[in-house]
Fold this protein.
Amino acid sequence: MCFLLDPKDAATLYYDFFTGGKKVETGSADINLDGKIDDKDKKKNYNFVVLTSDVTFSCANSFANTCWDNGIKIAGIKSSGGSCVVRYACAADGFPFQYSGCMRESHKADWSNCEDGAPVEKSLTLDQMYSNTELAKAVNELFPAP
């Protein structure tokens, strides 16, 4: 996602609901591939939209919410949710397993939970999401010509 934002602005927030601890993860990218991260790697004028549906969940929900929190537009159907970090453990006999951890993704503005899915700015039906004509119309509505 760093290629869509100013590298210093890309952030994902996590909240530990047991301890109340907060964690902010930021990222940056060498967008122009010159070997260094600097002012030349700033956001370009992309008309980028993330499509979500009711089967967008878990990590895809996390991606959609992070995009929404960072000003990237969402179209489609509200995602299904899922915001907890996956943890890994091992039983006494060595059997590995995964479980939902106590850290959950949070919204930038107020640290609220992302569990309920990513909000959409442009609602689309599944038929519209699979129609190039309807997608183009939605993008044009989200990014009107100057």
Q: What stands out?
A: The mean pLDDT is 85. The longest helix spans residues 59-69. The first strand starts at residue 11 and ends at 16. Residues 63 and 122 are 17 Å apart (CA to CA).
